[in-house]
Amino acid sequence: MSSSQGPIASGSSHPKKSQRLDRVAIRFAGDSGDGVQLTGTKFTESTALAGNDLSTLPDFPAEIRAPAGTLAGVSGYQIHFASQDIRTPADQADVLVAFNPAALRACLADVRSGGLVIINSDTFTEKNFERAGYSEDPLPDARERFQLVEVPVTRLTLEAVRDLGLSQREAGRSKNFFALGLMYWLYGRPLESTFAWIESRFEGEVREANIRVLKAGYHFGETSEVFPVSFEVPRAKIEPGTYRNITGNTALAYGCVAASVTMDRPLVVGAYPITPASDVLHELAKHRSFGVKTVQAEDEIAAVSAAIGASFAGMLGLTVTSGPGFLLKQEAINLAVVAELPLVIVDVQRAGPSTGLPTKEEQADLLCALFGRSSDSPLPVLAPATPSECFSVMLEAFRIAVKYMTPVVVLSDSYLASSAEPWRLPDVAALPRQGIAFRTDPDGFFPYLRDTETLARPWAIPGTPGLEHRIGGLEKQDGKGNVSYLPENHQRMTDLRHAKIAGIVQDVPPVEPYGATSGKLLVVGWGGTHGAITTAVDDARAVGHDVASVHLRHLNPLPPNLGEVLRRFDRVLVAELNTGQLWRLLRAEFLVDAQSLTKVQGQPFRVSDLRSGIDRMLGVAS
Amino acid sequence: MSEPIAKLSKKDFESDQEVRWCPGCGDYSVLANVQRVMPELGLPRENFVFVSGIGCSSRFPYYMNTYGFHTIHGRAPAFATGIKVARPELSVWVITGDGDGLSIGGNHMLHVIRRNVDLQILLFNNRIYGLTKGQYSPTSRLGMRNKSVPMGVIDAPIEPIAFALGAGATFVARTVDVDAPALQDVLRRAHEHKGTAFVEILQNCPVYNDGEWAAIEDKKTRVDAGLPLEHGQPLVFGSKGQRRGIRIEHGVPTVVPLRDDEDPVAAGITVHDEKHESPAYAFALATLAPPVFPIPTGVLRAVERPSYERLLEDQVTGAIAARGPGSLAKLLHSGDTWTVG
Q: Would you identify the CATH topology of the domain A244-425?
């Protein structure tokens, strides 16, 4: 560490009083150029190191730099941390740190009444009110309803770095570190990891400025009169192990690398940049030393096609995309269905249709994944429930793809992609190793002879003597694999393709309802809504309601006991961020009179959305 | 066990599938010549992969007793890229047509050539959509009438060779379906080339566009209709008494009449240089077309540039050399970690 940091006793010896809290939700908000995401990420890292459980929700505009000071340009980052197990970024923030009036206007409705609102008072000018669409100064009203703390963050930042010779513009860029330092003091977070990060990331005066401003913010909290107390959120009691923070997109990428390592086959990734999936490509592109070959293709179609080509040649083929790109890939995926080649397609869902809300949350590609290709084209579909589950779901997806010789769709979503949680690192040595058995024996070889247990055809790769064969999109003769137009053969092949995918159910574990094994109400969800649904079920049960939940990771085939589990409950509520896709599926599949709870606002469920849904179903007043 | 390479014959490359192109289709000749050249290329049969898209020519892989993948319309270059990136040791051949490769697949054709993936791309140009029964293609001539343009084609055609050169092709050649020796020469050269070898094959569709290339297919007229290219030799063509040469100045070609005994070089006829630094030279050749000019055949351009899959492989070996083979445990534990209990 540089000498300029000086001693800061983080979180241990406050001269002021410290108050204990079980949980806190903080929202940082500002212009998309204010460094809000960075501030949130650093606070998250430090909070993880402080031993709290946590959940985060970054929320940023699609425009890289929307006009400064406007509502369209507001970037937010919410972190919820606690001394107990938590699963959501919280419905309401206890604290809002607003870098400008637009941030205040965009976020105030999400702050708990009476909550703490810290503003950078230097930005609260007539001109900025106008940009934010305020017709009058919002502060008098905010003072009435919240604990408003006005801190001249810009001025104090400039003051702290005055003698460094930076331009006003350069110096002003450090102001997010002032807010970060202040929040570190307020919640007793350690600063060391942020100092180390600044050291590694910046040089010269900028590094010095960031360190000074971080300290200045911390000291401001400690010495100024505006904060009479600081807060302490004790460590959470969590399962022993080694942890790190992980976002869904990073976990996804790590899961792919882990699949390659444990299956001992190199990974070939075809991808085209698309929000919010690009970070998976970025992460995988770093890992050439694992033999990972990433091809940034000319378009979405080429990306999936290259991945299928690599699979044909014997590698683990992967493509990663989001809604619009997923649609473009469907014809090639259909080829992989007929060619019966392993392939994993990740769709990090975002709000649509079309370009829609590219950075916002939705889980509306389920029916597209299941039925969005021409003709009868079955394939398995998986969905991770939490950011860290994105790791294991990729291992499972590749295992299914190779074992059953099929493309597999993984439906992540933009909330899982960018939100973070602590992840207990798996023991790498204990991960199941599963080498791949390519067909090498020419004796009795035909490209569409099937394994009797899995119905998979052999994976016979170019370069293998005696197994030369042709595959393609034309219907194949059962067994021999030559082109066939015979009516009964097409019936048989269609049936076989269905039976093969249906048979994957032998590898799908039965679901166990959370909360109760039977009763009045079962809430069914899938994907990134897990945290909100389980929290709502916990809350409802805590006040005596008879409710349980089931969260589906396997959407095709569905778990073997699902129909039976649904019938154990008087009523079923299917909660999802679309207009009722899983709901339709479950009604069609099981003839249950399930009800639907949906939301399509580009935002995850709030726990309160689900609580009201549960209360409505149980006929109790919210 | 693979057959000893030296013993392979044309027959070893014929699959057991009945060939189903129309009688008289130019594809038969191309297939036979490809099968004839394969045994000479010094590779075991199992290392060949034929990849195609959709169209008449794209049935080609089914007739080759090698590994083959009949993919989807226009995307064969992308599938082939994945195969070659995965397994650089394989010899990967793309079979495509004017519609598949330049219309629906134009984007992929552009990018595979720009990347210089080490593939052989055989583009069968019959200037028509055959499989869908006779609509005009992106190479069909202006004014051509058929069922999708009863009043005549109004969109200007694309010249495949010029397209490939524009995309930065390192190897560009043209040949004719029925000219067996020239076709075989070009196939051998394409295979030797390290990088994307783009080969346009002028191919007759006897059903929907019969006679499109008649002048250059017919041995009697070929000598006046074609311009066979040979590296280091002057651009001379024409029958006795009709001898002519091509002079290219500032990228502009002109036809220069020559006496039968005249020294073409002394007469200022351009000497073919397939390794010319500037693609503008080959581009000038690509603009040669009837009725004023003959159709150049042979290798128009052959230059060296590292291939995509090789550069990618180098990044992998370079990363491993610099950091050692990846460790999953290290990767998962990267960044800040903390231990509980």
A: Rossmann fold (3.40.50)
In the predicted structure, residue A221 carries a pLDDT above the cut 80: yes
- Say how far apart CA B46 and CA B23 lie, in whole Å: 30
The residues with which B14 forms a beta bridge, in sequence order, are B64
As its CATH architecture, domain A3-232 has: 3-Layer(aba) Sandwich (3.40)
User: pLDDT digit string (tens) for B166-208?
Assistant: 999 999 999 999 999 999 999 999 999 999 999 999 999 999 9
Check if B75 contacts A (Cβ < 8 Å).
yes
Report the pLDDT averaged over residues A59-87.
Answer: 88
In chain A, residues with a C-beta closer than 8 Å to the C-beta of B64 are 470
Q: Kindly give the pairing relationship between strand A23-31 and strand A53-59.
A: unpaired
Burial of A240 by CB count in 10 Å (0-12 exposed, 13-18 middle, 19+ buried)?
exposed
Length of chain A, in residues: 622
CB atoms within 10 A of CB B174: 27
Q: Would you list the domain boundaries of chain B?
A: 5-230+274-310, 234-271
Q: With contact defined as beta carbons under 8 Å apart, do A132 and A69 qualify?
A: yes
CB-nearest partner of A335 from B71, B111, B318: B71
Q: Is B80 on the interface with A (CB under 8 A)?
A: yes
Domain definitions of chain A by residue range: 3-232, 244-425, 519-618
Residue A11 pLDDT more than 50?
Answer: no
Q: Is B167 on the interface with A (CB under 8 A)?
A: no
Other C-beta atoms lying within 10 Å of the C-beta of residue B314: 13
Residues B115-131, mean pLDDT to the nearest whole number: 97
- Indicate the residue of B67, B71, B85 with minimum beta-carbon distance to A295: B85
The residue-averaged pLDDT of B11-34 equals 97
Task: Provide the sign of the torsion angle of the four alpha carbons A243, A248, A249, A252, taken in this order.
Answer: positive
Q: How confident is the model at residue A228 (pLDDT cuts 50, 70, 90)?
A: confident
**How many angstroms separate the CA atoms of B182 and A359, rounded?**
56
Q: Which residues in A lie closer than 8 A to residue B2 (C-beta atoms)?
A: 465-466
Question: Over 50: is that where the pLDDT of A12 sits?
Answer: no
pLDDT tens digits along A257-309: 999 999 999 999 999 999 999 999 999 999 999 999 999 999 999 999 999 99
| A positions 189-228 inside 8 Å of B (CB) | 193
Pick the residue of A201, A260, A289, A464 with the most B CBs within 10 A to test the interface with B by mutation. Answer: A289
Cβ contact, residue pair B320, A261, below 8 Å? no
Phi, psi angles (nearest 5°) of residue A521? -140, 135
Fold of A519-618: Rossmann fold (3.40.50)
Q: Is the pLDDT of residue A2 over 90?
A: no
Q: Same fold for the domain at A3-232 and the one at A519-618?
A: no
Q: Is B24 on the interface with A (CB under 8 A)?
A: no
Q: B133 — alpha (psi -120 to 50), left (phi > 0) or beta?
A: left
Calpha distance A501→A490 (Å, rounded): 17
State the fold for domain B5-230+274-310.
Rossmann fold (3.40.50)
Say yes or no to pLDDT of A10 above 70.
no
ipTM of the complex as predicted: 0.97
Q: Which residues of A touch B320 (CB under 8 A)?
A: 288-289, 291
> What's CA B341's distance to the chain center, in Å?
65
The encoded tokens of residue A19 equal: 């108050």
Question: Could you give the angle at which helices A153-160 and A175-186 cross, rounded to 10 degrees?
Answer: 100
- Residue A418, pLDDT > 60, answer yes
